[in-house]
Amino acid sequence: VLVVGCGNSELSEQLYDVGYHQLTNIDISETVVSHMNQRNAERRPDLTFQQLDATQTGFESGSFQAALDKGTLDAMASEEDGALAGRMLAEVGRVLAVGGRYVCVTLAQEHVIKLAVEHFAQGWAVRIHCLNGQQGEESDSSFALPVFVLVCTKFRQAPPFALLELCQGEDGAPTRLASVPELLSAVKERQAYNLMLHKLKGGTDASSTPSLTLCHAATGRPRYTLTVQDSLPSAKLPRSNHFAIFI
């Protein structure tokens, strides 16, 4: 496993502790690499970190079965109008063996996910997992956006059609999408849904009426519209009666 742009994250250490010992960690920062090697010298002597540029690693082609990216694509996509991230993705594709996977944990900002999906859409299988709701309903986290995991699988020969899928959660059944714009639109819908949930948890403007359209799973056609009406600040209502939902 090649861990791209490892930084000082504990991810590789946690992977090592549960049995993934063949990890190659790279980062462009000499300070980070030195710190991480020192931090793991005693407890994890086989866990090593190398100072390398992710856009030109020098590794042999096809030498890794997986490439793991936690936030590196997000950080690089804004540099050089995406050209730097494009070179990193090309290098990842080169060092992965046939059947190898690029696994990227991302917030899926529009310019980031568009760059990655368009890069791998030709000749790779692209699947996006939406991990919203994984922290449980009682979480008081102020973080509104869902986390996505992009998984791109390298084929020996390009398939005759694009393989684009979206999954809800880690093990949700995949939904096949016909085109890159359709996949990106589905990602944006889930982000909008989570933003709305976050807004409702914290209260809404009493003068606004947020609404949500629920669609039939098989046909995609609208079935119900839920409209949320917040209580007026001056209203004398029971403590539990903060808002009403009209269907």
The order of strands across the largest sheet is: 3-2-1-4-5-7-6-8-9
Taking all Cα atoms into account, the compactness measure Rg is: 22 Å
Shape: globular
Indicate the proportion of strand residues.
Answer: 25-35%
Helix percent reads 25-40%
Please report the number of helical segments: 6
Low-confidence segments, given as residue ranges, are 134-138
Structural class: alpha/beta
The run of helices and strands is EHEHEEHHEHEEEEHEEE
Describe the biggest sheet?
9 strands, mixed
Straight-line N-to-C gap = 49 Å
What would the average pLDDT be, to the nearest integer? 88
Textual characterization of the structure:
With 247 residues, the protein is an alpha/beta fold. 28% of the residues lie in helices and 28% in strands. The chain has six helices and twelve strands. The longest helix is centred in the C-terminal third of the chain and has 22 residues, at 180-201. Mean pLDDT is 88; it is low at 134-138.
